[in-house]
Amino acid sequence: MAKKIEFEAAKKSPNADAGKLRTSTEDKGIVQKVDKIIQEAVKEGATEIHLEPLQDTLVIRTRIKGALKSVDINIPADTKSNVINRIKVLSGMDITRTKIPQSGFFKLTLDERKIELYTYIMPTLHGEATIIKVQYKQSATLGLEQLGMTQNMLASFRKALSRGSGLYLITGPPGSGKRTTAYAAVLEVSKPEILAMGFDPMIKYDVPGMIQGKPEEKSEFTFAEGIRSVMKQEPDVAYIGDITCQEDIRAAIQGAFARRVVLCRMSANDSINAVQNIIDMGVQPFLLAASLSVIINQRLLRKLCKNCRQPYPAEKNIQKELGFRLPEGAKFFHQKGCDACENTGYSGLAAIYELYVPSEELNKLIVAKAPLDSLRQRAVKEGMISLKMDGITKAMRGLVTVEDVLNSI
Ligand SMILES: [Zn+2]
User: Fold this and answer.
1) Cα 13 to averaged position of ligand 1 atoms, centre (Å)
2) CA distance 399 to 196
3) How far is the CA of 342 from the centre of ligand 1 (A)?
4) CB 157 within 8 A of CB 149
5) How far is the CA of 355 from the centre of ligand 1 (A)?
6) Measured in angstroms, how far is the CA atom of residue 385 from the centroid of ligand 1?
7) Rounded CA separation 342/323 (Å)
8) Which domains does the chain have, with CATH numbers?
9) Residues with Cβ within 8 Å of residue 321, at least 6 apart in sequence
10) 12 burial class (0-12, 13-18, 19+ CB within 10 angstroms)?
11) Which of 114, 349, 356, 388 gives 20 to 30 Å between its CA and that of 403?
12) What secondary structure does DSSP assign to 88-147, as a single string?
């Protein structure tokens, strides 16, 4: 069945009219070709579209379920720049400038699904390399239960959220599913009588009842300014996209002191590193200790196909690498491949988590600027399930492979 697709340039390219005036068959062919590449990619659920210029062609690859895959389409060398120009016009960029990096944005609707596409162009040896990042906007109906946390962890997270104010940090490397966790937490605490606001460079979900904004580079509405203006509106719940500097984190901590639930996304390898990152940003340890409610650290891994995963007994020698004892008769699982998973051995994604809930003792260590190792040891002693432990538990249940767990940490 033919799918209906509509493109919508987010803002007018300085050359949009020039693009429209070209009516030669050749150009129409290019427009159709590019539109088809994008259409096929989003139909397959691609998260990125890469256009990589080589000497005599333009290689097109799409990222689907984390892996790059070549698109079988021939773009002759003499039409490379026409293809890029079509994307530039769509993304609101200047087609006359080819020697500078540019970024842009456009939208499309595919069968009533709204999709946002962020374009980044960089000049390279054989032409302009282009990456289009695809954001599928969806209504956030994902509750905390669907995140895949263990019952105990879920209960601790809920308890921390029910305090009604404080700083909640959702951390992990890029692509670890932090936004999904943050939005699920917003939904958990949102009630009709409260004000929930969000500010994020990329808005992934429409949350009913939540007012969301994003920075606009062209109109000089910056990220830091956005956070400040969100806080001025005095929301009960504030979600802040990506904390990267002292200015951002200070605004977030002030919000937490003003008795708000402030949820922030931040890059960090583990929850204890997140503490260090914030102190390194120049925040006084006592301010952090006094406002911090929870740190979550997470990874997103390939989920094994239930149909074909293969159990095998955990070897003794892996116990050493894990650093803790596995139960007697513990099993892990290998991927295999079947019709249900298109022979990949995987189906969907699964998250692993670490949840740090500060105690009085842990806060004392933070204020005393104790080394990270002692903070980590103390947290584990108090019952913190580390990312590794959560991953290994999920590997024993056949959700993910033990190799993916260890590689992700
Ligand atoms: Zn399978």
Assistant:
1) 46
2) 34
3) 7
4) yes
5) 31
6) 30
7) 35
8) 5-136 (3.30.450.90), 139-408 (3.40.50.300)
9) 406
10) exposed
11) 356
12) HHHHT--TT--SS-EEEEEEEEETTEEEEEEEEEEEETTEEEEEEEEEE-EE----GGGG
Q: Give the Å distance between the CA of 309 and the centre of ligand 1.
A: 7
Helix axes 360-367, 372-381, angle to 10 degrees: 180
Q: Backbone dihedral region of 74: left (phi > 0), alpha (psi from -120 to 50 degrees) or beta? A: beta
The pLDDT of residue 10? 59
Query: For residue 378, how far is its CA from the centre of ligand 1 (angstroms)?
Result: 41
pLDDT at position 213, please? Answer: 86
For the chain (length 409 residues), average pLDDT per consecutive 10? 61 56 58 90 90 91 85 86 91 90 88 84 92 77 84 94 93 90 89 86 77 78 82 90 88 90 94 95 94 96 94 82 82 93 89 96 95 94 93 95 93
CA of 347 to the centre of ligand 1 (A): 7
Report whether 391 contacts 408 (CB < 8 A).
yes
Look up residue 46 and give its two tokens. 């691609």
CA of 343 to the centre of ligand 1 (A): 6
Cα 345 to middle of ligand 1, angstroms: 5
Residue owning tokens 């290998």: 334
The residue with tokens 């080394």 is 371
Q: Would you state the pLDDT for residue 2?
A: 46
Cα–Cα distance between 287 and 257 in angstroms, integer? Answer: 9
Centroid of ligand 1 to alpha carbon of 337 (angstroms): 4
- Type of residue at 266: M
- Which pLDDT score is estimated for 145? 86
Residues 93-125 have pLDDT tens digits of 999 998 999 988 898 888 777 788 989 999 998
The predicted model scores a pTM of 0.71
Give the phi and the psi of residue 8 in degrees, each rounded to 5. Answer: -145, 110
**Length of the chain (residues):** 409
Rounded to the nearest angstrom, the distance between the alpha carbon of 300 and the centre of ligand 1 is 19
> Which pLDDT value is given to residue 1?
40
335 Cα: distance to centroid of ligand 1 (angstroms): 8
